[in-house]
Write a structure and sequence with these properties.
CATH superfamily of the largest domain: Glutaredoxin
Radius of gyration: 29 Å
Number of strands: 7
Helix content: 25-40%
Structural class: alpha/beta
Strand content: 15-25%
CATH class of the largest domain: Alpha Beta
Shape: globular
CATH architecture of the largest domain: 3-Layer(aba) Sandwich
Distance between the termini: 104 Å
Largest sheet: 5 strands, mixed
Low-confidence stretches: 1-8, 31-51
């Protein structure tokens, strides 16, 4: 007899499923679904608010648009109204010592650079209107200033202290961020790099 014919096939043992495997798969699927739902929710909220937050080094990012009530009660202050112009955006408060130090140089630079199409905008935050108005008057600041009562701009721009100044090109891209009082020489260096007419 052929030895192969004499061989008896052994049954293949089935491998029992490990206890909890189904639960692990279920938990993994649930986790994946939760991640997807979170992303969808955050995306929809982002789209609804239109606000994104700049990081600590925002160079190259699009500057978030905003519209704020004017500190002086005139028309609203909006970043998008100045598209096509370089913008120096200064976030300040009247009680801030470095803000007091930079106020006059900012006002003087705004007058000097206006002929070359540079717009200066101020955003006053965490302040009292009366003190902010006195600050503007005392320092001869004539450029528009908005009041960020809800902290919308502070959050969108990732401001962590006062003052912070953003140099934004004519296309709305942030070129630089200064996190201390800026002086005239620093402003001239930043703005001079824009190759303005």
């Amino acid at each position: 007899m052929d030895p192969v014919d004499d061989a008896v096939a052994e049954p293949v043992p089935s491998v029992p499923a490990r206890p909890g495997t189904a639960r692990l798969w279920g938990a993994a699927v649930l986790a994946a679904v939760l991640v997807v739902l979170t992303v969808v929710l955050l995306t929809s909220l982002h789209g609804r608010s239109g606000t994104r937050v700049l990081g600590q080094n925002p160079a190259g990012a699009v500057a978030p648009d905003f519209t704020l009530p004017s500190l002086t009660g005139t028309r609203a202050v909006s970043l998008s109204a100045y598209r096509g112009h370089p913008v120096v955006l200064n976030v300040w408060a009247s009680w801030c010592a470095p803000c007091q130090q930079e106020a006059r140089p900012l006002g003087e630079a705004a007058r000097r650079w206006a002929a070359r199409g540079v717009v200066f905008l101020g955003v006053n935050a965490q302040d009292q209107d009366t003190q902010a108005l006195e600050f503007v008057r005392r320092n001869g600041i004539t450029y528009p200033n908005g009041v960020d009562r809800r902290g919308t701009v502070v959050r969108a721009y990732g401001v962590t202290g006062f003052p912070e100044t953003f140099i934004i090109d004519a296309d709305g891209t942030v070129l630089a961020k200064a996190i201390q009082a800026v002086d005239a020489a620093t402003l001239d260096r930043y703005l001079g790099a824009l190759a303005l007419p």
